C-alpha cells in the first residue's frame, strides 16, 4: 500500500513535534458501531422529521433561540468567522452549549438534524467565512424557512469542524427534504419532493440505497449496525400506508424499531418534529414520557429559556421553561467537551461567546488543537480490509503495546461495501484526525 500524509494546522505547536503516526492494515471486515437514525415522513396532511439520538449519556437542554440577535461564529481556525443576524426564532436540542445544537426546528417549520458519518471530509474554503459543523445547524435555523433556501446558500459558507464528522437531514413545512453530505471535500445532496419520504443513518445516502437494494429481504444484523437500521426504516417507509397511518405515535413507533436499548452506547433521546403544526415531541432515557412544545405559543423576542431534556413530566411543556444562564451553559459545555476529549478548552470562554458573540480570533481552541489530514492511495483497490491509524506521543511510544493504547485511533473500513468510503476519481481514501 502506498500512502501519503499531510498536516494542516493553524500555526506551529511544539507538541506536534512529539507525535508519531502508526499504520496497521487489518484484513478483516468487522462492523463498526456508529450512531443515530433519522426519517422524514410525509402524507397530504402532515410532515414529520423524526430522530433517535444515540450516544453515551443523556444530559442536555431544549433551548429557545431568539430572533434579531447579531451573531458571530466561534473561531476554530485563523480565518474570518461567519457573522449573521438571526431572522427566525427556534427550538434546539443541545449538549455543547446553546449555539452548537444537534438539531432543532424554527418558527417557519424548517427542521435540521445531524448524524455521524465517519468518512466525512468537509469542503473548507479559506476564502469564505467559517463556522463549525454544529453552528452550521443553528445558522440554518436562524436564517432560512425552506429546504430550497438552505440549498441555495450551501456554497456561501465553509465548515471548519470542531470535532464531529457528520451529515445533515433538513426538511420544511411544505414537505421537501434533503440529506446534505461532505464527501471528498465536496458538498453532495439529494433533494426529495413533498411526495417522497426519506431515511438516513450513518452511511452516505448512495451507499445506503445501494445496500437496501441488495439486502431488503435480509433479516441478518442488529440495530447497532447502521445499514441494518436503514433497511428497517426504508422497508417500513415502503410498506406502510402513510396516507392512512401517519401520526406522531407512528413516528415514535418507527424510531423504537431502530432504538439501541441496552449498553453504554444507546438511544438517549427520541424526537419528532411536526413541521406543519410547529410542534416538537420528545422523550429521553431520563424521562420516557412524551412531552411536547408548541412554537406558536413562544415569544422569540425576549428571554433565553430552556428545559432539561430529562425533567420529569409529560404532555404540553411550554410552561416548564426556566431561565437559561451562562453558568448552566458552561456546565453543559464542560460535561460534553470533557467526554469528547476537548478538556484543554476554556469552557467559560466558549460559553461567554455563545451569549455575547465576542471572542478573540486566537483562543484556547486555536491554541490547543489542530486538524491532521491524511490521504492514502492503495495500489490494490480490490484487496482492502481495515486500516488502523494510531497517533502516539513520541516520548512515550512503545510499538510493542497494543493498538488501543495509542492516544488516538482511527479506523477506515476500506471497501467494506463497494464505494462506501467516497466517490473519488482516483479512489483516494481520505480522513481527518480532528483535534489532537
Please explain how this structure is put together.
It is a single chain. The protein is an alpha+beta fold and 436 residues long. It contains nine helices and 26 strands. It has helices at residues 135-143, 147-152, 205-215, 226-239, 242-245, 248-257, 326-339, 347-356, 364-368; strands at 2-8, 19-26, 37-42, 47-55, 61-65, 70-72, 83-85, 90-94, 103-106, 111-116, 130-131, 158-159, 166-171, 177-183, 186-192, 198-200, 266-274, 279-284, 291-294, 305-308, 315-316, 322-323, 371-377, 386-393, 408-413, 428-434. The protein has a nine-stranded antiparallel sheet with strand order 15-14-13-10-9-8-5-20-22, with helices on one face. A seven-stranded mixed sheet has the order 16-3-4-17-18-19-21, with helices on one face. Helix 7 packs across helix 8. The model is unreliable at 1-33 and 402-436 (pLDDT under 50).
Amino acid at each position: 500500500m502506498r500512502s501519503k500524509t499531510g498536516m494542516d494546522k493553524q500555526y506551529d505547536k511544539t507538541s506536534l513535534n512529539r507525535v508519531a503516526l502508526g499504520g496497521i492494515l487489518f484484513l478483516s471486515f468487522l462492523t463498526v458501531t456508529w450512531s443515530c437514525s433519522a426519517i422524514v415522513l410525509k402524507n397530504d396532511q402532515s410532515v414529520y422529521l423524526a430522530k433517535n439520538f444515540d450516544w453515551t449519556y443523556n444530559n442536555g437542554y431544549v433551548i429557545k433561540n431568539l430572533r434579531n440577535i447579531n451573531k458571530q461564529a466561534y473561531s476554530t481556525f485563523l480565518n474570518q468567522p461567519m457573522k449573521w443576524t438571526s431572522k427566525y426564532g427556534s427550538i434546539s436540542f443541545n449538549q455543547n452549549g446553546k449555539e452548537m445544537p444537534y438539531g432543532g426546528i424554527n418558527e417557519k417549520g424548517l427542521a435540521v438534524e445531524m448524524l455521524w458519518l465517519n468518512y466525512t471530509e468537509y469542503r473548507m474554503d479559506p476564502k469564505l467565512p467559517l463556522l463549525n459543523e454544529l453552528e452550521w445547524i443553528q445558522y440554518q435555523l436562524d436564517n432560512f424557512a425552506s429546504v430550497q433556501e438552505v440549498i441555495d446558500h450551501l456554497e456561501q459558507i465553509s465548515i471548519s469542524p470542531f470535532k464531529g464528522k457528520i451529515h445533515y437531514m433538513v426538511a420544511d413545512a411544505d414537505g421537501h427534504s434533503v440529506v446534505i453530505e461532505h464527501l471528498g471535500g465536496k458538498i453532495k445532496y439529494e433533494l426529495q419532493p413533498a411526495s417522497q419520504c426519506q431515511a438516513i443513518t450513518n452511511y452516505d445516502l448512495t451507499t445506503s440505497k445501494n445496500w437496501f437494494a441488495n439486502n431488503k429481504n435480509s433479516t441478518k444484523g442488529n440495530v447497532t449496525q447502521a445499514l441494518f437500521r436503514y433497511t428497517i426504516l426504508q422497508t417500513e417507509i415502503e410498506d406502510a400506508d402513510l396516507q392512512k397511518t401517519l401520526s406522531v405515535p407512528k413516528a415514535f413507533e418507527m424510531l423504537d424499531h431502530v432504538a439501541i436499548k441496552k449498553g453504554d452506547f444507546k438511544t438517549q433521546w427520541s424526537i419528532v418534529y411536526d413541521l406543519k403544526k410547529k410542534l416538537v415531541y420528545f422523550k429521553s432515557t431520563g424521562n420516557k414520557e412524551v412531552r411536547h412544545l408548541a412554537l406558536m405559543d413562544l415569544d422569540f423576542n425576549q428571554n433565553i429559556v430552556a428545559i432539561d431534556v430529562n425533567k420529569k413530566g409529560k404532555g404540553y411543556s411550554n410552561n416548564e421553561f426556566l431561565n437559561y444562564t451562562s453558568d448552566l451553559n458552561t456546565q453543559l459545555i464542560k460535561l460534553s467537551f470533557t467526554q469528547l476529549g476537548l478538556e484543554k478548552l476554556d469552557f467559560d470562554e466558549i460559553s461567554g461567546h455563545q451569549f455575547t458573540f465576542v471572542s478573540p480570533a486566537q483562543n484556547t481552541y486555536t491554541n490547543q488543537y489542530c486538524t491532521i489530514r491524511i490521504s492514502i492511495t492503495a495500489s490494490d483497490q480490490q484487496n482492502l480490509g481495515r486500516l488502523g491509524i494510531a497517533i502516539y506521543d513520541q516520548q512515550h511510544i512503545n510499538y510493542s503495546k497494543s493498538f488501543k493504547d495509542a492516544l488516538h485511533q482511527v479506523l477506515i473500513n476500506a471497501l467494506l461495501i463497494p464505494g462506501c468510503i467516497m466517490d473519488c476519481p482516483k479512489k483516494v481514501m481520505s480522513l481527518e484526525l480532528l483535534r489532537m
